[in-house]
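[agent] plan:
  1. take the single chain provided in the ticket
  2. run structure prediction with default settings
  3. attach structure tokens to the ticket
  4. add a short note for the reviewer (M.T.)
[agent] executing step 1
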Amino acid sequence: MPKGRIMKALSGFYYVESDGNLYQCRGRGVFRQRKVTPLVGDFVEFEISGNEEGYIQVIEDRKNELVRPPIANVDQTIIVSSLIEPVLSLNLLDKFLVMVEAKQIRPLLFFTKKDLLTEDELVNWMNKLNYYQNIGYSINFLSAKEEDLDIKLATYLSNKVSVFAGQSGVGKSSLLNSLIPGLELGTNEISESLGRGKHTTRHVELISYRNGWIADTPGFSALDFQQLDLEDLPICYPEFVELSKNCKFRGCMHIKEPKCAVKEAVDNGEILAERYDNYLQFVDEIKQRKPRY
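[agent] step 2 finished; step 3 output follows
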């Protein structure tokens, strides 16, 4: 059977690229019985049933998968945030990072609208962003109007499957339209009353770009922790992982335990207080969520 990768999922059809051709496929009934759904990014084996049509027979093992957006085998997530209009939410940024870290996907942080900040605002944000850089995250600044945008991003996107994510209204679609002329993803004005934009994309699709693939994905800004167990939350914080070696108790959750190296680092100003507060909020969210069945 021929092999390929699912490039797009739309209305019950899966579009599989194989040897330069695109086949419109359906999934076998056995997938539904097993409650397995083919995902964009899946490597599959399929049976050709007609002129560029077929049935997916086998889904190969995934190295990772996301539920929202539904996509598999992702190499990295490009998290796009604006510093203003809408204002950067570190709470939302930390949620993105936890979600990506939990799936062992590499996050790259890109920030837009830096030029709209006052000098004082810029100093304030740079102090916080330097913290993220110091704990190992890649920090980059972009404007969708820059002529060298393609050159700046090519280094990061070549030969990778990249998911673009971020708060609505931060300019993801504009950014992708700049990268791929003719793509013409819909963009909406930011709602001033809500302080955020509206989703305009309707499906997940991998788009070929510089020997790699990029995806614009709806629904990524609606995040919850349904897929994350409480004891796994601390390991989604790289600075906690390093410090936890000095905690008195193995498996320390860094909340009320005595002789906790993480809490000491917060008190000493070594850990950004706002990021630790977000961590405590996420702990509460996981504890209060409805049971999974």
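[agent] step 4 note for reviewer: The helical segments are 29-33, 90-102, 119-134, 149-157, 172-179, 238-243, 261-267, 273-288.
[agent] ticket updated
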